[in-house]
Amino acid sequence: MSTNNIDTELSALKDAVAVALEYAKKLGTSAAEVAISKQQGLSVSTREKEVETVEFNKDGALGITVYRDGCKGSSSTSDLSPDAIAIAVKAANDIAKYTSSDPFSGLADKELMAQTIRDLDLYHPQDISPDELAQLAIRAEEASLSVDERVQHSDGATANAHTAAKVYGNSHGFLNGYCSSRYSLSCVVIGEEADGNMQRDYDYTIARKYNELMTPESVGLLAANKTVNRLNARKIPTSNLPVLFSPEIATGLIGHLIGAISGSSLYRKSSFLQDSINTQLFPDWFSIEENPHMVGALASANYDSEGVATQQRQIIDRGQLETYLLTSYSARKLSLPNTGHAGGIYNWTLSHSGQTFDELIKQMGTGLIVTEVMGQGVNMVTGDYSRGAAGFYVENGEIQYPVEEITIAGNLKDMFMGVQAVAKDQDLRSSIRTGGILLSEMKIAGS
């Protein structure tokens, strides 16, 4: 598959957005915004070292939203011919005539539009054939099956290569677009003891640049070792213990913070962090910084999905909540400034307390490492948290045995304030960059 041509389409996509905006203007709309994206990618999955699926995709669509005196109408088209775009714009305009007026709807304010467009180094096309991707997946499987005689089967490996071009424009005169690339490889492994006890685990790598992926052998070995370590898991007695979230699970914990301080949750009164600006949520050594302009990172952007300029900011400063995450709509509903978070967050980095993850295990003494959570037992209105979990029991700073079929419970406010330490060895594979997080105590329901 050649991924070299997605950038050649960028100019045509900008032209299509400009055409749509011009049509909307001719119809006498109050305002309009247009977003268009085109993606193409190749995904190859293998199982037991045999190719199982090869999927190639190339798709995209233009979405137009028009505003007429507070009324909003939206439509979309995958046909980018001028006639099709005109039909889509007219459809959106017709819909707006029948919707109710909402004084909070409309474009983000003109002065918030991004003026400076930096080169964030997000696009690295690579010519990759299905055979090359298949070999990556097979090599990961082969490595995973060489680790331990209890690992006789792979549950599959998948290698992906994707590129995208995105353009956004509105009737403020903002019109910009960019290309991006993303490559990944994952491997899932099954382990089985002689008595039939079975476990599975996985590992993965993801990067903007193809040559920055971990080697397939590394991915396979990590997946296999994680699986072997989970064999012969057992329950532990019900108790209150310190809990150390692995980095993958720690990102989920911070994800609950994101949900609670997002504008839509706040104006619907469905957040346990209502009216919490300048409130101490975490210990005073703890901070979270957002850096949207980090070169080459997975969650970098010059502007959000409304064209609002992104900016470096403190989300948590010395434990205190500094900002909510607001779009133009939620900002107006709450009578607060727009923070440029339409479409998500941008490279959150947690402060750390100086220890490695292994050092935190020793510091914890006796407690529980959580490497997997299950279920949806989080009440975002009250902050109550209760989820199935698996991991490892620790005693005297040493891992004793794997644990499964337990429940961990607490309240997110208490959990946030109970953060004892954050490991310095960070997981950089998502928009939340953090090491493992040690909590002072949670309720463990076991045997």
Helix amount: 10-25%
* Content of β-strand: 35-45%
**Main beta sheet strand tally, sense and closure:** 6 strands, antiparallel
**N/C terminus separation:** 53 Å
* Rg from alpha-carbon coordinates: 24 Å
Number of domains: 2
CATH A-level architecture of the largest domain: 2-Layer Sandwich
CATH topology of the largest domain: PmbA/TldD fold
Give your account of this protein's structure:
There is one protein chain. The protein has about 450 residues and is of the alpha+beta class. It starts with 9 loop residues before the first helix and ends with a strand. The chain has nine helices and 17 strands. The mean pLDDT is about 95. It has helices at about 10-25, 80-95, 130-145, 215-230, 245-260, 265, 330-335, 355-365, 410-415; strands spanning about 30-45, 50-70, 70-75, 155-170, 175-190, 200-205, 240-245, 290, 315, 320, 350, 365-375, 385-395, 400-410, 420, 430-435, 435-445. It folds into two domains: about 5-230, PmbA/TldD fold; about 235-445, no CATH class. The strands form three sheets. The chain has a six-stranded antiparallel sheet. A five-stranded mixed β-barrel has the order 7-12-13-14-17. Strands 10-9-8-11-16 form a five-stranded mixed sheet, covered by helices on one side. Strand 5 and strand 6 (about 200-205) form a beta hairpin.
Question: What attributes does this structure have?
Answer:
PmbA/TldD fold; 9 helices; Metalloprtase-TldD/E_cen_dom; 5-stranded mixed beta barrel; metallopeptidase activity; TldD/PmbA_N; 447 residues; protease; 6-stranded antiparallel beta sheet
